[in-house]
Amino acid sequence: MSKQEFLGALYNGLSGLPKEDIENSVQFYSEMIDDRMDEGMTENEAVEDIGSVNEIIQQILSESSLPKLVKRTVSKKHDWKVWEIVLLAVGSPIWFPLLLTAIVIVLTVYIVIWSVVLSFYAADFSLAVSGIFTLVSTVAYAFTSNANIFAMLVLIGGAFVCAGLSILSFFGINQITKGMVFVSKKIWIWIKSLFIRKEEV
Fold first, then answer.
1. Per-domain residue ranges of the chain
2. Which residues are CB-contacts of 123 (< 8 A; sequence separation ≥ 6)?
3. pLDDT greater than 90 at residue 110
4. What is the DSSP code (8-state) at residue 80?
5. Membrane-spanning residues where (predicted)?
């Protein structure tokens, strides 16, 4: 495949994205090909070394924002048949509420999950504050006239227990958060993939 064929296929494969994004991508890969040719490769070798144009298109689309992908999908030319338009209009009282409900459910689940994670962090913060407050209270209690050594030891023990639990739970919550970020990314990638149609160029 020649450089022009590659760039033409890339341009066509990204159609529907903002013009500036397409031109930036085409220019970037044009310069990559030129750099390889400057190193002594032939034009075909340079193009082949970059990789499959289909995979590059899929990668660029997967890295594009969701609004751009939605706009691209909507703007794609499609010759609507009369029966499709009629079916779409007649079925709208059914499919539109269902679609809206699905979106709301997904968003609600997402918000609830992250609310639980934030609650864990709030509880952990409360433990840390309780430990500090208990330690400060113990010091203040030591200077009172009716200070009891046994009560002071209990308070100090409680402060260290709170501090220890706070530290341990922080590491556990941190791992949960990392897992949630990973899952969230996977869900986001899956949602974006719904708007990326695999096309052979």
1. 3-75, 83-193
2. 169
3. no
4. -
5. 94-118, 125-143, 149-171
